[in-house]
Fold:
Amino acid sequence: MSFTAPLFYVALVPAVAVFYWFSGRWRAIYLLALSYAFYALSSRIYLVLLIVASAAVYALGLAIAKNGSERAKQTYMAVGVAAVIAVIVVLKAAGAWRGVLLPLGVSFYSFKLISYLIEVYWDDEAVERDPVVFFLLPAFFPQIVSGPIQRPEPFFAQMRDVMARTIDVEQVEAGLRFILGGLMMKLLVGDRLADFIGLIDQSHSDYSYSVMLTTVACYLLQLFADFSGYTNIALGVGKLFGVEGPPNFNAPFSAANIQEFWRRWHMSLTLWLTDYLFTPLSMSLRDYGQAGLIGAIFLNMIIIGIWHAFTLNYLVFGILQAVFLSVTVLILGARTRRKRVAGKTNPVQRETSVWGRLVPFLGAVLTFALMSFSMIFFHSPTWEQAMSVLAQVSGLAPSGSISWSSIPAYLTVPAWICMAIALYVGAGRPGSRALSQSVNAAAPHWLQYGVCLFLLTVLSTAGSGRFIYGQF
Amino acid sequence: MEKSEIESRLTPIFRDVFNDDALVVAEDMTAAEVPTWDSLSNINMIIAVEKAFGVKFSIKDVRNLKNVGELLDLIKRKAA
Structure:
C-alpha cells in the first residue's frame, strides 16, 4: 500500500491509537506485527525473505559479540555482509535483465542489516539481544519502502524508550505536520512536474530548445519534490510511532559545489556509504595519496549509481558524479593550499564583498546545471532516450517547433509554479521563518492545517501517486 | 609520551588539515564543532597524524573515536 493511498491514512489512525493502547513489550510486538502485515500487502513470499534475513543477521550479531577471537568476529561479519550483498546483487540483476519485480524496500533494509553487522564487529556493545527490538530495525514499516536508512543504535534506543513511555502529543503533532507537508510536496508539486515531464517525454524532439532545456531542469526538481515528499511522509509516520528518523535533504540546491551537494542530498544513503564504504576504502588506499582518494571516490559514486539498478544509464550517472566530485575535490584542495600559502586561513570568516557573495551563488547555479545534466541518464528509462535527449540539449540534433506559446497554459503555468516551489524549498526556503512567524500571528495552527488539507483535496491531480524511489 | 605533549603537537596538524589557524586542540573537541571537518579532511587528518607520530591505525581504531581526547589516548597507546 502506498503512502499516497487514502486507505493508508484511514488505517493509520486506528493503528497508532492501538499502538499507544498497548504498553511495554506488547507495544513493540504489535508494531512488528503491523510492519509485517504492511509488508505482506505487497508480497507474502518476500516477507519470508525479510524474516529469514533478519533472523540470520540477528544470530550473526550474537555470534560476533560472543566470540573472543578477532579472526572469528571478522569472519562472521564478512560472511553476513557478503551474504546480504549477494542477495541484493542477485535480485537487482534479476530485476535488470529478467524483469523480476524487486522485493519492497530490499535495498533499504539490507543497508540497515549491513550497518548492524559492521557496528557489532566494531564494538561488541552495539549488539541487540532483544529479538523483537532487533527484528523491528529492518521491518519498521514507515522506513521500509525507501528509507530513510536509520542507524541501528539510535533506532534501538528510541524503540526501547517508546516501549516505556506514554504518548508524546507534540511528537505526534509534528508527525502529522511532516505527513501533510510531504503529501503536498509529493502530490501537488512532484506529480504536477511529473505530468509536465511526461508530456514532453512522449515526443521530446518535437519541442523547442527552451522547452527541452527547462524539462531537463525539471528532472532534478521533480526528483527532489518526489523523494523529499516521500521522506517527510516516512519521517512523519515514524514520529507517530515515537521514532525520529534521520533527514535525507538539507537544502541541496543551496550547495556551492558538487561535494557540498552530496552532503545535502539523500543524506541517509551518502552518510551510510561514507561510514561503511568510503572511509574504510580511503583508509586502505591511503598509502597511494591522491590516486587512492580518487579511486575511493570513483568506487563510492559508481556504487551509488548502479545501486539504483544495474543499467548502463545508472552506471554513467555514477561515473559522471565521480568525475564531478573528483575534479571538485582536487580544485578545492588546491585552492585551500594556495590560500594557506597566501596566509588567508580562516574558513569561518564570511566574505562580504560583492564578488565574495557572487561566487557561491554562481557555484550553486553551476552545481544545479551539472546535476541536471547527469539527471538525463537518471531520468531516461533507456540508453536510446538518454542519447536522444542529450543530442537535442547539446544542439547536435534539431529541436522541434512546439514552443511555450503552443503548449496550453493549463499545463505550463502549474509547471512553472511547481518548479519555483521545488527550487525555493530545495534552496532552503530563504526568508520562510519570518513568513511563518507572521502567518502564525494571524492564523492558529488548526486553520493552517485545514487550509493545507483543503489545498490537497482540491489541487491533487488524478496522477498515480507512485514514488520514484519505490522501485529501488 | 605525555598527553599534553601529544596535544601540543596535534594543534599545528589540525590547523593545517582543517585550514583554521585559530584552532586549538582540546580533549572534548568533536568533528561537529569544526566546520571543515568532513569525511575527506578526516582521512587527511588521520594520514597526517600517522605520519607525524610514526604510528599506524586500523579502520576499527579510527571508527570508534568519539572525540579528540580518545584520539590522544589512541596515539599514546600506539606510540608507546
